[in-house]
Amino acid sequence: MNILFLTQVSGFLKPFAWIMGVILDAIYRFVGLFGIHNLALCIFLFTFVVKMLMLPLTIKQQKFTRLSSKMNPELTKIQEKYKGKKDEDSMRRQQAETQEVYAKYGTNPMGGCLPLLISLPIMFALYRVIYAIPAYVGEVGEWYGTVADAIINGNATGHADAIAAFISDNGIKVTSNLTTYAVGSAEYRNSLIDILAKFSTANWDAFFQTSSFAGIKGVCEGVVANIIKANNLFGLNILDTPNFKIIWSLIIPVLAVVTQMIQTKLATANQPQPKKNSDSPMANSMQSMNTIMPIMSGVFCLMLPIGVGIYWIASALFTILQTIFINRYLDKVDIDAMIEKNVEKANKRKEKLGVVYDNKMAEVAKKSTKTYDNTAYDNTEYKKNNKRKSGSGSDYQRSTVSYSSSSIAANANLLRSRSDDGKKTIELNASIETKDNKDSAEEGTKE
Length: 447
Description:
Layout: H1 14-32, H2 39-53, H3 55-81, H4 88-104, H5 113-131, H6 138-154, H7 159-170, H8 186-196, H9 201-207, H10 217-230, E1 232-233, E2 236-237, H11 251-267, H12 281-303, H13 306-331, H14 335-353, H15 359-366, H16 379-385, E3 396-398, E4 401-403, H17 408-446
Antiparallel strand pairs: 1-2, 3-4
């Protein structure tokens, strides 16, 4: 059985999509044991399995949200304290105080972003797998392959142009181009499957009514019926887009908006809400995003296949259930004990890395650089303290600053000292030469 069709995603997402495809194919085979061949149900169960696999990341995200509710007041005070201060000293002190707060709670600024960054490739791969089911579900791929073989063998000379015309006339959006590959090649067959996988129920009816493909209707009628049945959801085809002609299909975008609004409400329930007309641009933008994104998901559902909308609805539903149960679990957990445990884990990680956190570092960072004593350079003191001694190396002290013999500063000052000595030697030789010339002139005058 060959399930490696051209529609499989390549590049960075390929391994993630391959794993997701294996899971979806296994689910399809499992429900098939009970005589059920329905892709909508498989997408629903598929979403549930993936959400359960990502549960540890979800719990970690929820814990960080709880910690943020305690940290944010302290972080907000720091931001207000240094508001409008852009000088280097203030920025350094603000950074040090912020790091000190994160260390106090045993977390870091990336604690909430890391689970999201890990889950993003999985989410993108999920979408690509659902959008190209024939590439990953073996039996469905074989059905489309049967139709593709019938097209190639039944009309080997002119079917490429006929399909191109049919796609254009029916407004089917595809990325595959049959003219790129040689007729009969594996790549050509896979590209043809890519195109057929975008056909809705209405497209199949119109396809077999065209003169170019009416002759293969009898051969393909059975597998096309299986394809339509597998894509059926309460009379809707998951490859169709919701439209106003079929009012029942509009329930998909409506459910997508409602479920995502509930999900967003639960996700932000334990977070401190910013005040109205807040001066924080980030807080205002987050509020706007929480309102706009659910509405945008409904708009996207009107433009994308119903199967994608089913995934969004299922994902929101399972996220809502996970959030409810995780919140109930976290309500029983002592937040102070959680913080203590986080600090202990953070200290162990730092010990393994050889990093020891010391509050004195923060205190040093808080000091202004203006407090340092920039003692003026005293040439007399320099001469006194830096007399060259045989075998003494280049270790010496200038003013209140000590230099190691291996440091750049030490060698630079050594070169400077040698340059000063050279200048003194030249001046001394010039003085001696001048005196000799003067004495010679006086002796000549006497003679």
